[in-house]
Amino acid sequence: MLSFSTGNFKVYNIEEWQGEFASPEQLFAGFDASEFARFSKQIPHSFYRPESDRIYAFLQSWVIRAGDLTILYDTGAGNHKQRPGIPVFGGLDTPFLANLAADGLQPEDIDVVICSHLHIDHVGWNTRLQGQQWVPTFPNARYLLPSIDRAYWDPSNHGEKRPSTVGAEVNTNVFEDSVQPILDAGLAELVDDGHTVAPGITLTLNPGHTPGHLVLHLDNNGEQAMFVGDILHHPAQIFQPDWNSVYCEDATAARESRRRILALAADTGARLVPAHFGGAHFVWVERDGQRFKPCFGI
Ligand SMILES: [Zn+2]
What we know:
The structure is a single chain. This protein has a single domain, classed as Ribonuclease Z/Hydroxyacylglutathione hydrolase-like (Metallo-beta-lactamase, Chain A), CATH 3.60.15.10. About 20% of the residues lie in helices and about 35% in strands. It contains eight helices and 19 strands. About 45% of the residues are buried. Zinc ion binds next to loops. The site of zinc ion has 5 residues, from loops.
C-alpha cells in the first residue's frame, strides 16, 4: 500500500491487479516506434518491460480520508464478472476487499464512491455478487457517477451519441452489472463539471477518453493533487500527449483534455495520480520547452 498526504488529506492506494497488459503498439492509437524510441529509455522498468515489449499496469482504487469523510475513487474491475470483450479482467477473484481491510476499512466505512468514468476497470467493485444478484459493495456510500457517462453507456438509452465499436465490446455487461444496480438501489448521485464533494475536493469534466470523464482535485493547506483516471494511461503520454489509448472515445477531445491537465499540473505543482500507474503510482510534471516531462518521485 502506498500512502501520501495532500495537506491534511491522507491518501492510500488499494491494489486490485498488476501485470503486463499490452505492447505500446497495441495500447496507443497512432503509435510510432521512432517517436517511442525518443523517450523510452527514460521510462522506468516499473512502467514498461523492454524485454517483452509490454506496458506494465495496475488496477487500483484510491482512498482519500478528509476529516470524517472517507472517499473511494474508482473501483477497479471487480470479482466474478463476465467480460467477454476483455477476458483478462473477467472472472477475477482478487483480495481487493482484504486489501481494503488491511487499511482498516470495511465496505460499510466508505462514505463516498467516485467513478472517474464508467469503463469496465473503474466501476467493478461498485457491486459484488450475492447469490445470483449484483448488490452494492459499499452500502452506506453515495456513489458519484458522471451524468454524461451514465447516459452515454446506458444500453437502453438510444440517444444520438453511441459508444464506439471498441468501447461497446470492451464494456459488454458493465453497465448492467456494475452501474444499474447502484441506480436501482437509489445510491447514485449523478454529477457534472464543478461538483464540490467537500471543501477542497472538487470534480471537473475532462472529456474525450469518455464523454463524461471526471478528474478529482484535492486542494488543502497549499498542496494539490489531481486524480486523473484514464486521461493518462502511461508516462509515454506525458512525453507524447497526442497519443491516445485505443479505448479513447473522442480522439480530439482526449488530446485536448490530456494537454490541459498536463499544463495545469506543470503550472500548479499538483501531484498527478493516474489510474493505472505502477512505480510510485503518481508523478509530477514539468515543462520541457514546448513539451512536458515526468518526474517520477520515489
Ligand atoms: Zn477508461
